[in-house]
Structures are given as structure tokens and as C-alpha cells.
Design goal:
Nucleoside Triphosphate Pyrophosphohydrolase, four-stranded mixed β-sheet, Endonuclease III, domain 1, 2 domains
């Protein structure tokens, strides 16, 4: 990496931000609670997707106390469709910490914020700078990308050591009287101009006259990242088991991927019609009709689910011997309103006309 006067980024960046900042609901009243919840929601998630979730979350849980007291299924239902569900569990744990250890007031120092569940250096920097005016950097993928391009930094941005180095660099040059604006401006530049996919909009960038990558015409070669490990492929057969009124669901284990969510019964591997019918009969049901459903896949960070599905209509779901079974049975309206179902199953929920996440609020 060449020598680069990093302090030159500040003035043009802030001037650009003050004239281009988006109007976002969490910016209207940037309290610590609003900033914290919004930043957790925005991890791995687009701003436009987050907006309606944020507004519903704030309506249901307007403060730390209500968040601390919320039960898991309420939280998961509010989060349904946003993914990375441990985020909301950690919000709940951290809210309980705030109530027990800080009298319900979110701490204002970077160090204390980092002690709360689910809060790392980025979120601690965002909350302390935006809500409390502390000069702490907030470095995420957007910030790492724009800084790698402006100074042609060829270090691996996935490295924790590189992130720490960038945090130290920003700590030295960030305006002490406007730390929150500075952090938000860096995030905004990465989201709106120096974008991750496709050509960055260099002609709209306040740094275009000194950005090393732009001047060399190699913007898309940055940032540098180590190759990711290949995702594991898991094959599953989903069974939409229903009678005239109700559909079967089962709850996932309390730990691990999609913990505590609800899903349709399933079998490992891609199964034939006969194998599915044998599975249903073994559970004590009498199949009346079976229909092949579409194939679909869902990508997680380290796994891919490749799924096929079957709709199986059975005679009388509710039977005397159901007490020993792991399934629960509910009508479609109850499922849509009460039980949190991962977006991975959206295609099979749609077959039942059950809408998940944001979809259920659309006309």
C-alpha cells in the first residue's frame, strides 16, 4: 500500500453526506436504543428490507425494558424473514444485561457496550459515536471497501488484524466534534456510491480526485479477500402434511441453525413418492393424496439446502395417539400470525398461501 494522507477524506466526505444522506427511520431520533437495534438489523441485510421490520419492532418493543421482557417466539416472529436469528436472541440477552447491570440505560462507552451480548467493535462504535458523540470508529464491510479503494490497500479485508489496523487509522483522523456523522458518512458512501457489486459510481464520489484505485482505473480489483471455503450442500425432502383445515409443523432444536423456529416435517436426502408415503404412514397417518412440489434451494453462510417437496393430504390429523408426536397442528391463519417460519421454507409456505415476514403485510 502506498503512503496516503488519510486525513484528506474527512472534509469532502462530510460535505457530501450532509447533502446526500438518506432519510431513514432510525436517523430521525438517534437514541442509543434506536441506533443499536437498527445496526443489528442491518448486519448482512439491505436497508430497504430492514425499514418495515424496524418500524414493526419499535412499535411492538419501543424500549429496552419491553425488549428484555419479550418471549422468544414473539422475537422470532418479529424477525421472521430477516435471517441470522441469533441476532435477535442476542438483542434480548443484551437488553436483560442492560436492565440488570445498568438500570435500563444503555451504556455510553465503547468498552461497556462491547460487554453486551451480540455487540462487537462495529456496533459499539456506531452506538457510542452516533448516539453519544464519542470519537469511536465503526468499521464494517462498507468502510473496509471504500478505504481499500481510496488508498489501494491490498490487504485481506477479512483479516481481523486488518480491521483493527483500519480502526486505529480512523481513530486518528476522525473529526472529534462529528464522529457519528463521519461514521454514517463512510457507511453511506459504501452503500450508495462505492458499491460492492458492479462498477462503483465514481463520478458521484467526493473522493474521485484523489482515490488511488479510481485514478489507476482498477476500482473493481479492490477490496482484496481471501477465498471463501465452499459451502456444504444438504439435500432435504420437505413434507407439507395437511388435512382439510390444518398443517403440521415441528419446532427446531433450541441450539444451532434456525434454533427455535418452526418448519415443515422433512426427510434427509431427495426422496421418492413411495418413500414419502412410507414416512407418513409410519407416523400413523392415512394418506389420501400426494402431490410433488417444486424444487428450491436456500443459501446460508456455510451451507446450502437443496430441497424438493411433497404435499400430502391425510385423513384426520387430530387423532388420540397424537400426544406422543413431535408435530403440532394449526390452521393457516394461526401459522401465519403466531409461528415463526424461516424464509428457507417460503416456497412451501406459499403453496399453503401462508405469507412470511414482510410478505404478510402486503396487500
Amino acid at each position: 500500500m502506498k503512503e496516503f494522507a488519510l486525513e484528506q477524506i474527512c472534509e469532502p466526505l462530510l460535505a457530501w453526506f450532509y447533502s446526500h444522506a438518506r432519510i431513514l427511520p432510525w436517523r430521525e431520533e438517534p437514541t442509543a436504543y434506536h441506533v443499536w437495534v437498527s445496526e443489528i438489523m442491518l448486519q448482512q441485510t439491505r436497508v430497504e428490507a430492514v425499514k418495515p421490520y424496524y418500524e414493526r419492532f419499535m412499535q411492538a418493543l419501543p424500549d429496552v425494558k419491553s425488549l428484555a421482557e419479550a418471549d422468544e417466539e414473539t422475537l422470532l416472529k418479529l424477525w421472521e424473514g430477516l435471517g441470522y436469528y441469533n441476532r435477535v436472541r442476542n438483542l434480548n440477552k443484551a437488553a436483560k444485561q442492560v436492565m440488570e447491570q445498568y438500570g435500563g440505560v444503555i451504556p455510553d462507552t465503547y468498552e461497556e457496550l462491547c460487554r453486551l451480548s451480540g455487540i462487537g467493535s462495529y456496533t459499539a462504535g456506531a452506538v457510542s459515536s452516533i448516539a453519544y458523540g464519542k470519537a469511536e470508529p465503526a468499521v464494517d464491510g462498507n468502510v473496509l471497501r471504500v478505504l481499500s479503494r481510496v488508498r489501494m490497500d491490498d490487504r485481506d479485508i477479512l483479516s481481523a488484524a486488518v480491521k483493527k489496523s483500519v480502526e486505529r487509522d480512523l481513530q486518528e483522523i476522525m473529526p472529534k466534534d462529528k464522529p457519528g456523522d463521519f461514521n454514517q458518512a463512510l457507511m453511506e458512501l459504501g452503500a450508495m456510491v462505492c458499491i460492492p457489486n458492479g462498477e462503483p459510481k465514481c463520478t458521484e464520489c467526493p473522493w474521485q480526485h484523489f482515490c488511488e484505485a479510481h485514478l489507476a482505473g482498477c476500482m473493481t480489483e479492490y477490496p482484496k479477500k481471501a477465498a471463501k471455503k465452499k459451502r456444504t450442500v444438504v439435500q432435504k425432502t420437505i413434507i407439507v402434511l395437511q388435512d382439510e383445515q390444518k398443517v403440521a409443523l415441528q419446532k427446531r432444536p433450541p441450539k444451532g441453525l434456525l434454533a427455535g423456529m418452526y418448519e415443515f416435517p422433512w426427510m434427509e436426502g431427495i426422496k421418492t413418492t413411495e418413500e414419502v408415503l412410507d414416512f407418513v404412514k409410519a407416523k400413523g397417518f392415512q394418506p389420501l393424496h400426494i402431490q410433488k412440489l417444486e424444487e428450491t434451494k436456500h443459501i446460508f453462510t456455510h451451507k446450502e439446502w437443496h430441497m424438493t417437496g411433497y404435499a400430502v393430504r391425510v385423513d384426520e390429523l387430530e387423532k388420540p395417539d397424537m400426544t406422543e408426536m413431535s408435530f403440532l397442528f394449526a390452521d393457516r391463519e394461526t401459522v401465519q400470525e403466531k409461528y415463526p417460519i424461516p424464509a428457507a421454507y417460503a416456497a412451501y409456505a406459499a403453496y399453503l398461501k401462508i405469507r412470511l415476514g414482510n410478505e404478510k403485510y402486503k396487500e
